[in-house]
Design a protein that fits this description.
0% strand
């Protein structure tokens, strides 16, 4: 766990932007390779955008902070239902 924490701490946005995260995670979670051909992604993108905008307007978060908060809420919702 310490190794992962160090990697996260030492990774900057420039390095992160060079990684195709969908491709990287799809080796562990194959659904990430195929869902875009099956799912109406525009529908979900519109709803996600509404949630992001609401977080920005209500709490005065910038785009990145709103995305991180929404992502964390989603992760907790998923984990709480397991």
């Amino acid at each position: 766990m310490k190794n992962i924490e160090e990697i996260i701490k030492n990774t900057n946005e420039e390095n992160q932007s060079k990684v195709n995260w969908t491709k990287a995670w799809s080796t562990k979670y194959p659904i990430l390779k195929t869902y875009q051909q099956e799912v109406d992604t525009e529908k979900y993108k519109q709803e996600i955008r509404k949630l992001l905008n609401d977080l920005q307007e209500t709490y005065h978060y910038n785009e990145l902070d709103a995305m991180l908060v929404l992502k964390d809420i989603l992760a907790h919702e998923y984990l709480d239902k397991k």
